[in-house]
Design goal:
Arc Repressor Mutant, subunit A, 2 domains, two-stranded antiparallel ribbon, globular
């Protein structure tokens, strides 16, 4: 594990723009941990992949569309999945690892999507292990999507078998 962390730091140090270093470090760590500890039954991760073959920041299709388009594209039915999709969108589209319920409210407004009880959906996602609480900032609770949550979204909102 220490080797993975130090190798990830080494890669992120090569990024010149300081605002992108933390994002690059998080992405490289995620990718390396996936390679080091792949999920059972996942065939898309090859354990022999070397660090130099791993991009510092993984580009995603979500980075090219609006939140409204993203929600329509995924045709989500439950508010817990919608809130999780918004958390994923913030991470991949806006490079925002941590967010508040107010950030999610703003995305609902931006998408012109009917609002729900966001806090209830967040709590439900936390109980499922798809999101985590990250402390407080300016009196607001901070949350982030977990690695399990990312995998859940990336596997079309179902748990890999």
């Amino acid at each position: 594990m220490k080797k993975v962390v130090s190798a990830a730091k080494e890669v992120s140090e090569s990024i010149e723009e300081s605002s992108q270093k933390d994002v690059a470090l998080a992405e490289v760590l995620r990718k390396m941990l996936d390679l080091e500890f792949p999920l059972p039954g996942r065939k898309d991760i090859v354990a022999e992949t070397r660090l130099e073959d791993t991009p510092a920041v993984v580009e995603s299709d979500v980075s090219r569309i609006s939140i409204g388009e993203y929600l329509i594209e995924n045709d989500l039915k439950t508010h817990t999945d919608i809130v999780l999709a918004m958390a994923y969108f913030l991470l991949k589209n806006r490079n925002q690892v941590e967010f508040t319920s107010a950030d999610l409210n703003a995305l609902y407004e931006e998408a012109r999507h009917p609002k729900t009880n966001i806090n209830l959906a967040i709590i439900s996602n936390i109980k499922k292990g798809l999101m985590v609480e990250r402390g407080k900032k300016e009196g607001y609770k901070l949350f982030s999507i977990s690695m399990t949550g990312e995998r859940y979204v990336e596997s079309n909102f179902s748990f890999p078998k």
